[in-house]
């Protein structure tokens, strides 16, 4: 099993798909990595040699921000907004949608399970 950036990559999947299991690498960046290293699109992770896995690992460490560093960076950006007290920071603090979505109905993912209000019947 290949381990890159602290993540176990599934061995039966194609290299491009396997790389997307790393936080911060999506389909586009995975394809870019494969092209830079010259891997065929149909190759599987279990077909890689130790040297090729090492090349992938070095390329990702050098050129991309992934996993723990990226998660920390995102968390710090959100914390900065909250500390500033700007509108987006206040929305994060209250657990409401940040990007202008309506909250009269919907927004259940951010707001959590609906709480019944006593005497609200009309």
TrEMBL record:
Coiled coil: none annotated. The keyword Transcription regulation does not apply. Pfam families: Ribosomal_S13 (PF00416). Residues 95-122 are annotated as: Disordered. PROSITE patterns: RIBOSOMAL_S13_1 (PS00646), RIBOSOMAL_S13_2 (PS50159). InterPro entries: Rbsml_uS13_C (IPR027437), Ribosomal_uS13 (IPR001892), Ribosomal_uS13-like_H2TH (IPR010979), Ribosomal_uS13_bac-type (IPR019980), Ribosomal_uS13_CS (IPR018269). GO terms for cellular component: ribosome. The keyword RNA-binding applies. Keywords: Ribonucleoprotein, Ribosomal protein, RNA-binding, rRNA-binding, tRNA-binding. Belongs to the universal ribosomal protein uS13 family. Part of the 30S ribosomal subunit. Forms a loose heterodimer with protein S19. Forms two bridges to the 50S subunit in the 70S ribosome. Located at the top of the head of the 30S subunit, it contacts several helices of the 16S rRNA. In the 70S ribosome it contacts the 23S rRNA (bridge B1a) and protein L5 of the 50S subunit (bridge B1b), connecting the 2 subunits; these bridges are implicated in subunit movement. Contacts the tRNAs in the A and P-sites. This is Small ribosomal subunit protein uS13. It comes from Lacibacterium aquatile. The lineage of its organism: Bacteria, Pseudomonadati, Pseudomonadota, Alphaproteobacteria, Rhodospirillales.
